[in-house]
Amino acid sequence: MAKYLMLKHYRGAPAPANDVPMDQWTPEEISAHVQYMNDFAARLEKTGEFVDGQALAPEGAWVRYDGEGRPPVTDGPFAETKDLVAGWMIIDVDNYERAVELAGELSAAPGAGGKPIHEWLELRPFLTAPPTITE
Amino acid sequence: MTRMDEAALRSLTPGVLAILVRRGADFAAAEDAVQEALLQAVRVWPAGPSPSSRPRPGGGDPLRDAKGWLVTVAWHRFLDATRADTARRRREDLVDEEPAPGPVPAVDDTLQLYFLCAHPSLTPASAVALTLRAVGGLTTRQIAQAYLVPEATMAQRISRAKRTVSDVRFDRPGDVSTVLRVLYLVFNEGYSGDVDLAAEAIRLTRQLAAAIDHPEVAGLLALMLLHHARRAARTAPDGSLVPLAEQDRRRWDTGAIAEGVEILQAALARDRLGEFQAQAAIAALHADAPTAEETDWVQIVEWYDELTRLTDSPVVRLNRAVAVGEAHGPRAGLAALAALDAASPSSGLRSSRGHPVPRHAAVAAYLHERDGDLATAARLYAEAAHQAPNLAERDHLTRQAARLNARRRR
């Protein structure tokens, strides 16, 4: 088994084919989209491949150490940042091909006009613990 | 055991724990021992009351004297753990030196446990966890599942909390308002898992109300019951939020409403108003309206005025603006919102940490829609969705923006 992170972006991914902002969809189209995402996660739980899924707020901050006895420096919200993660799903699957297949399904979630968004998802393998047998 | 049995069993937790502490066990060790006794009870007790239930070791038929059984088992567990401990001598000396229990203190033991678990030295998250375990009798795993953190993390949080309060004297009354804040958090931020935290919060508040005669405890209990009554109507089958005005009121739990109203009226009659009673009064006025249109908004505004006097929070003043909009029209509501922002921009639009007050944009959007300005309302709903603190609200607000945009296109 191998774990993969499927990352969804607010910004930074190539533009999807069906690129209409959500508040310009009809309420029914939004409901269909939410239903598709819920069904997708529920199906992965049933197949034993779901690990975790979380959504992130669109606003955050950069934070760094600013020296002894001083409070950390914060900078943000990062309007100029090119890349902004919206959320993730972690899956535990047999192989890379299965991970690609699932990411493709998630990307087919319906958007405006009920048509698939074709959203680009970032697929990243987890680094694993070292195996016991190496020779 | 069935759920009912488990709840009945867990209701004995604080009493059993208090007896161990009175006998001289330190709180942390006693709490562990009670947890083990509860787990053993779940394992060995028959599923329900039955005349044929066999007597159990350590104190007769558990079903006839469940508390006695738990005390006996927990005490033995405590002694075993103490003997096994490398610091055995020291602890046993401690127990030996413990003065014999004096006259029964005026304050109930259960109450002392609530105070201890909500002690001001604890962070809210720690107080919540400790209360659910030591007073509620939930296992660390159940609490961890409910708050979506690993079990090891929750175990650490609880044991650190126990260390923090280990030096607190057990016989001094605390501040009941700290306890109420903890119970409010359990009720309002119940997430998931197999434990119904809202129901658990109600059970614990009910138990507290039995231990102390205090109008704000009653007020919180009434508030919880009145909100819990709406639970079935609050979400659609697809999981989306249903706003109060659109809820199917036939699905409200009339039994819980009746109980909440009765408890609230008795509390209000004592003429010691507090924020929970005022919040409950607002919930009761909503419960009292057969349809959303029949809501007594004028009276609700008056209660918000009381709440503003009791606790001048930006959230209260924001909700007051909604009520003003319903009572006196959207223009009056927008004026109330503008007054709020102008009076103290630091606490109006923004909370102390510089974040927008939750739902400010959503309230403004709603009032502008009522006022007929759909373009502004749609823009503000989209902004509100952007700031939404959870997915259900984000989806709801995005849908509102979409609904208005679709109407504007027609």
From TrEMBL, chain A:
Residues 15-107 form the YCII-related domain. InterPro entries: Dimeric_a/b-barrel (IPR011008), YCII (IPR005545). Belongs to the YciI family. This is YciI family protein. The lineage of its organism: Bacteria, Bacillati, Actinomycetota, Actinomycetes, Kitasatosporales.
